[in-house]
Each structure stands twice: as C-alpha cells, then as structure tokens.
Design brief:
Blueprint: H1 4-21, E1 36-41, E2 44-54, H2 66-83, E3 87-97, H3 103-120, E4 123-131, E5 137-146, E6 162-165, H4 171-181, H5 187-197, H6 203-210, E7 215-220, H7 225-236, E8 239-243, H8 251-260, H9 264-270, E9 277-281, H10 286-297, E10 302-308, E11 314-318, E12 321-323
Parallel strand pairs: 3-4, 8-11
Antiparallel strand pairs: 1-2, 2-5, 3-5, 6-9, 6-10, 7-9, 8-10, 11-12
Bound molecules: adenosine-5'-diphosphate and magnesium ion.
Amino acid sequence: LTKLTDIGEFGLIARFSPRFLSNLPAGVVGIGDDCAVLPWKKDARLLVTTDMLVEGIHFLRDRIRPRDLGAKSLAVNLSDIAAMGGKPDSAFLSLAIPRGTGVEWLDRLFKGIGDLTASENIHLLGGDTTRSPGPVVINIAVLGRVHPARVKFRSGARPGDEVCVTGFLGDSGGGLRVLLENRRQGRDEAYLVRRHNRPRAHLAEGAWLAGKKGVTAMMDVSDGIDSDLRRIMERSGCGAAVELEELPLSGPLRRAAAVRGWNLYEVAATGGEDYCLVATVRPDCLPGIARGFERKFGRRLSRIGSITGERGKLRYRLNGNPAVLGRHGFDHFR
Ligand code: ADP
Ligand code: MG
C-alpha cells in the first residue's frame, strides 16, 4: 500500500490529475498552474482559483486576530490571480465552523474579508456555511480576468532565463517561527508576525510584469522558493540554480535570525507564505524590466538565480560554492 507521506502533496496531485487533464475543451487550462484559465471574451480570459485554510494547519486561532485571518484567507487567493497577471473580480466563501465559535469572532473575520473586497473592488457573490466537528475551515474561491496576450504560466521558463522575485523572502516564515517559539516579541519580531498574519498579494506587480514580453513564467511564492521553483521546473522541463547570498532579506529577518540562531537561508528559501511573485525573465530583457520595476514600485526586482537545462535539478550556491539546505519547502504530507 502507498502512503501519502511517501508521495507527498505534489505526488498525490500528479497521481490523480492526468485523468482530468486528458479531455479538456480547447482553450481551457486545468490543474497545474496557479489558476485555471477559461475562454471568455475576445479581450479577456477567465481565471479561477481556490485555497483553503484549516485551523491547526494554516493558522492557530489564538495567534492571529480574526480580522487578519479573514484578510489573509482572501489575500492568498488574490496572490494566485496576481501570479497569472490578472485582476480579481469576485469571490465565494465557504466556512465550516464549530458550534461554540463566538459570533463576534466571526464578525471580525468578515470585517477582514470585507476590508479587502472593498479596497480591491471585489464582490463576494456566494459560498456555503456548515458546522465543523473540530477545526475552523475557510475556503475561498476567486474569479478574475486577464488579457489573453498577457497571461503568464509556470511553463514558459527556458534555460538561460533569470529568476527574479518581487519582494523579501522569509519574513513570513520568520513570523511563523516567532509565533511557535512563543517568546517575547520586540519590534523586529512584531514586523515578522505581521508579515505572516497579514500578507499582501502582489497584484499590481503581477499585472505590470504580465505586460512584459520578456517575462517567460510567473507564479506566487506560497510554499517557499525551494518548493515553488520546483513547480516551475516541472512545468517548464528545466532546472534552476539559486545564489543564496542574492535572496532579498529584510532587516528585521536578519536581526531576528542572528538573535535566535535561525539559518537565514533556510528560512528564506523554505519558510513559505511570502506571497510575493517569482518570475523568470529573458536575460536580454532583465536590465530594462528591472529598471522599470524599480521606477514603478520604488523597490528592487531581485535576481536570485537562473534557469538551467539540467531537468529537475535545483542547485544552490553560496558565494560561488555549492550549498545544501537542511530542509525543504512546504508539503502537507511529507
Ligand atoms: P497553488 O498553491 O498555486 O494554489 P498548488 O501548487 O497548491 O497551487 O497546486 C498545484 C495545482 O494543483 C493547482 O493547479 C491546483 O489547482 C491543483 N490542485 C491542488 N489540489 C487539487 C485538488 N484537490 N483537486 C484538483 N486540483 C487540485
Ligand atoms: Mg500559487
């Protein structure tokens, strides 16, 4: 008998998905990218994505304010729309709630969701509500749109492309460590926890990068680049080399890691839930795109490595020497 712990989350998806990929109508992109893509109008494709947050797995009810939890539940979905270069339009919310849950707690959860639907001009159009025998479960699905000529997939990376990220890596993973270590928090720790509990989807960055022909592939960083880059490699049939000293690290993360003895590169590459974007860029286009990005967003598009022809091999280097990470990106079952 095969155990889930042997094949992992991604092994499971690879096991069942072929059956549902074999007979898709023309123009439909199914399982395998950040969103499904469906034909819609001449100047727009329909994007669909869904993500679930389970109490005890994705959050601890006593370590996150309900308002932040509501906003995060939606933000993680918006991040998948951003990864395709799209704009979100509407959302559906399904909740499983244990009987004893406070109504005021739920009011605040909806406040957090409503903050973000209002600021991003998204309409909550439906959902489902049930009782849960144990954990709170929050599932949101988001529909969005993208111009057919701009949509970016995980599959477009080619050897020689540069690998870039749109924000700091590891802050959220650091924040999670702070929450789990349960020690007193200073300013740096509070910043990291905030980044973990209240991530921002890089919608503007994704839409801007989608307009650039030189961007060959894009996805959001949800499981850590160690895991997410492997998804791009699989879909694009290539390998990648990452220079650890190039990973963009915030001041608070550097200081907290020094104080608490964390391996900075491990937190940055495998921590996950950063919800920035990772994009591959044709090398001849990178200088122009990086300059434009900095002008537009006031911060750097960080180059962290490159795509190689070594199919399935993700190599790390630190200051020119081969390096190995002691842990891997997030997988629900491994
Ligand atoms: P993301 O983190 O961007 O949502 P994942 O890497 O978790 O994407 O999932 C990879 C792909 O597998 C996505 O296209 C996702 O929609 C699909 N997928 C994951 N779980 C299921 C499932 N239970 N049924 C169908 N498709 C799934
Ligand atoms: Mg994603």
